[in-house]
Amino acid sequence: MNSFSYIQVSDVESALREAARPGSRFLGAGTNLLDLMKGGVERPAHLVDVTRLPFAEIRELPEGGLRIGAMVSNSAAASHPLVRARYPLLSQALLAGASPQLRNMATVGGNLLQRTRCHYFYDTAFAACNKRKPGSGCAALEGENRIHAILGASESCIAVHPSDMAVALAALDATVRVRGLKGERAIAYADFHRLPGETPQRDTNLAQGELITAVDLPPSAFSKAFYLKVRDRASYAFALVSVAAALELEGDTVRAARIALGGIAHKPWRAERAEELLAGKRLEPHTLRAAAAAAVEGAKPRRDNAFKITLAQRAIVRAVQTAAGMA
Ligand code: SF4
């Protein structure tokens, strides 16, 4: 591991000042960053420990939404009564992630910044990885690419985003609140994570030195919800495909639907066309199949992952039916 300096800060101004130093990275629980440092994938020169910043509470917003502080642990967020009652989709997604030990440590802010689980990204013995070393190529294009993207990828990178929580937040239209030296701003969730394009080294649209302070959830009428995670083993595995499905029902008719997919793209993938096809309809099998097909329209499979196209469609049907109480 490279040598680095470390400082623990207790106020935001100090955190932002320290983060302005070249090669700085914020350190939360470190459940991803420290692994990456041990493997030589990340080599920050300066770590700014933000675990003592006052962002560890969950509180109601005046218009009925919820603000979840960036330092709230994944376990605390998942079990909070207001999250469970109003945003069951988020609670389920959080509980589908990692292991209990990791969820007790990992923070909401850190969860948003998890890096891809592409094998070639983690293994520095492979020279070609544009995300790790821009301009070096992509070993996954011609290599083992069973876990990789089928939507939104580029010839520079076909990695997928690993978070479960992020998929639920995409479906719920969350907002990410950040602070930087130039002040505070709110980033709509759809604009927070990036597609790889020609700069896959950038996972998010955060500016250098910007600190996540909270995630805001708008009021939600989507009480019928289900997070389905399909993976190679029953626990402590990343999603091959996941579906966050939430419904607002009027009798047996869908008033509005939200569907986001994980495990298939460089960012949580909102299936807006599928949502439109479900709105105003009863959940008949042909309607569900049409919506599921629309969600994967334009998919471009690689050598090992064409199965994800069928799997994603079946998972969407199953998740929506379960959310509606039909399965
Ligand atoms: Fe690197 Fe992305 Fe290619 Fe994986 S898919 S090797 S992360 S460039």
Can you characterise this structure?
With 327 residues, the protein is of the alpha+beta class. Among the domains are: 1-52, 2-Layer Sandwich (Uridine Diphospho-n-acetylenolpyruvylglucosamine Reductase, domain 2); 224-323, CO dehydrogenase flavoprotein, C-terminal domain (Enolase-like, domain 1, 2-Layer Sandwich). 28% of the residues lie in helices and 20% in strands. The protein is built from twelve helices and twelve strands. The chain has helices at 12-19, 33-38, 74-79, 81-86, 88-96, 100-105, 108-112, 119-122, 165-171, 272-278, 285-295, 307-323; strands spanning 5-8, 24-27, 46-49, 58-60, 66-69, 175-180, 183-188, 211-217, 224-230, 241-250, 253-262, 269-270. It has a five-stranded antiparallel β-sheet. The chain has a four-stranded antiparallel β-sheet with strand order 9-10-11-12, sandwiched between helices. Helix 5 (88-96) runs antiparallel to helix 9 (165-171) and helix 10 (272-278) runs antiparallel to helix 11. The radius of gyration is 19 Å and the shape is globular. Bound molecules: iron/sulfur cluster. Residues 116, 118, 120-121, 129-132, 138-140, 157-159, 200 line the site of iron/sulfur cluster.
